[in-house]
Amino acid sequence: MRLATLAPILFVLLWSTGFVGAKLGLPYAEPFTFLWVRMVLVVGLLGGLAWLLRSPWPKGWALNLHIGVSGLLLHAGYLGGVFFAISRGMPAGLSALIVGLQPILTAVLAQLLLRERVNAVQWAGLLLGLVGVGLVVGEKALSARILHIEPSAFVAIGLALLCTTFGTLYQKRFASQMPLVGGTVVQYVAAAVGLFVLALLFRETMQIQWTPQFVFALTWLVLVLSIGAILLLMYLIRHNSASSVASLFYLVPPATALEAYFLFGERLGGWAILGMGLAVVGVALVVRR
Q1: Which of 186, 183, 256, 198 has the alpha carbon at shortest distance from 78?
Q2: Which class for 85: exposed (0-12), middle (13-18), buried (19 or more C-beta within 10 A)?
Q3: What are the two backbone dihedrals, phi and then psi, of residue 209, each rounded to the nearest 5 degrees?
Q4: Where are the alpha helices (DSSP H) in the chain?
Q5: Average pLDDT in the chain
Q6: Residue 148 has what pLDDT?
Q7: Which of 55, 154, 272, 284 is 20 to 30 A away from residue 140, measured at CA?
Q8: Which neighbouring-strand residues pair with 133?
Q9: What is the chain's Cα-based Rg?
Q10: Which residues neighbour 46 within 8 Å (Cβ) at sequence distance 6 or greater?
């Protein structure tokens, strides 16, 4: 099977494990410290891989600056917002629902900023996917004690939504032709600096409990998410429209719900199963040739 066909499936499966990794690791480390350690490890591993493969590096200050900005948005901004919100009491399902608004927001802005045409069938797919995402996590969101969630969690998850949306558009507009491995290293260097600054600004103690559960979560997030899934995301952004790539995020909450069912025994009701089906159909309408 060609990479172009397999990449979207792999990306959704890998990316959906991010909420599981956060749930496993956040009890043992503060959010920005957790992510900063993750980025430092990724820079070392991916930088070594780039050296072994003799991968080309981005040339020129302008391109490196654009790559750094996209890295701050896609990694420090998005992940920092999600992890901070979860650490402040927001359920993973509710955070997934809010971030799940990204495809609609990306489609609107892609028309305005990138002049990408979104036809009627694709709009129908985007709306259908949004309904599907809402059904998957809606029950969990409604059952959550929203009034007991810190207001800062809602601010953080809103910023995460904006960062992942504008990060996708910025990457497509200014850095879509960056060298895949070398450019991703530059993104992670920028994200590591940004997360370290955030840890200082929020006065985190930067202390970590190195339990087996935390080590497993960190290892998974570094190898599977920050290297495997992100390289696939960069490949997808390069070869597809911003709207098509963003629509794949509709499949992440349903996939996460399935993983939570098998790993944590979280119940999957009839509405959730229906929502997963609608999300799949919605994405198919958006990305169909």
Answers
A1: 198
A2: buried
A3: -95, 110
A4: 3-15, 18-25, 31-53, 61-71, 78-87, 92-99, 102-109, 120-143, 151-174, 180-201, 212-220, 230-239, 242-247, 252-264, 270-287
A5: 81
A6: 67
A7: 284
A8: none
A9: 18
A10: 181, 184, 185, 188, 226, 227
